[in-house]
Design a protein that fits this description.
Radius of gyration: 20 Å
Helix content: over 70%
Structural class: mainly alpha
Number of strands: 2
Strand content: under 5%
CATH topology: 3 helical TM bundles of succinate and fumarate reductases
Bound molecules: protoporphyrin IX containing FE
CATH class: Mainly Alpha
Number of domains: 1
Strand order of the largest sheet: 1-2
Number of helices: 9
């Protein structure tokens, strides 16, 4: 392939990575807000609230479209990420005018591929655990009868029991905590880098975007990580 065509396709891939990555940041905010309902005390109707919410998320047409966009974004982001990691590795060190890994890049930016792979593995396990059970759950799953008499998978009980399991609950919480650390580092570089790839690059806003990215990279994964530990250690047993 001619060098300019390679560059062009590499730039296009960076653009799409940034676009899908920032879209996935929006997904993370929505998903976090939904999941924070898992912190509601059991005695205050958490099971009803979470299952009705899950039913709404699974059936509302606008949310369904957003869900499909999320799946597509994860696929595109992962495939482009693998492609870019391999291409960059082959091009180094000639691809960079002054490539001094230890001085001009932070650890996260040099390990986006590894971090992305850990996150992809997490998403695969996570989808199997909850989303898979919701969509293709077995018949002996506990069921929940909704306000309009519909029988659905009891996603609340499934989620809480996963993290309250006496044998594996804490192990799952630690796996989730470790994965959130990987997401945090990935976002620490990815958030502001995404804006730069989309051409949002102005001395007036760059500092703000970088700080917003750091805050996002710390607060969002931390809030996600708290949930499984809270369910294991603090929430009343169901
Ligand atoms: C404490 C952490 C988390 C918990 C307890 C949790 C729980 C759940 C549950 C119960 C579902 C199925 C119901 C639903 O669609 O809302 C789900 C779906 C999903 N989760 Fe999570 N989640 C967590 C963190 C994450 C993170 C960090 C990511 C991404 C990196 C993620 C990605 C997804 C995706 C892509 C779906 C499918 C969404 C859809 O169908 O629209 N989750 N999660």
């Amino acid at each position: 392939m001619a060098k300019s065509a390679l560059l062009k396709s590499s730039l296009a891939k960076k653009y799409w990575m940034a676009f899908t990555g920032l879209f996935l940041c929006l997904f993370l905010i929505g998903h976090l807000l939904g999941n924070l309902q898992l912190l509601i005390p059991v005695s205050e109707g958490a099971r009803d609230q979470f299952n009705e919410y899950a039913l709404f998320m699974a059936t509302n047409p606008a949310v369904k479209i957003l869900s499909y966009l999320t799946y597509i974004s994860i696929l595109f982001h992962a495939i482009d990420g693998i492609w870019l990691t391999i291409t960059n590795r082959r091009a180094r060190p000639q691809g960079y005018v002054s490539f001094k890994p230890s001085t001009n890049t932070i650890w996260a930016s040099r390990n986006m591929g590894v971090l992305g792979t850990i996150i992809l593995a997490f998403i695969a396990v996570h989808l199997y655990q909850f989303w898979g059970q919701l969509k293709f759950g077995s018949l002996d799953d506990s069921l929940y009868t909704t306000a309009n008499d519909q029988e659905v998978t009891d996603l609340y009980t499934l989620t809480i029991q996963t993290f309250q399991d006496p044998q594996y609950g804490l192990i799952w919480a630690i796996i989730y905590g470790f994965s959130m650390l990987a997401i945090g580092f990935h976002l620490y570089h990815g958030f502001s880098s995404g804006f730069q790839s989309l051409g949002v690059n102005h001395p007036k806003y760059n500092g703000f975007i970088r700080k917003l990215g750091y805050a996002f990279a710390i607060l969002v994964p931390l809030a996600f990580a708290v949930i499984p530990f809270y369910i294991y250690f603090i929430l009343e047993k169901i």
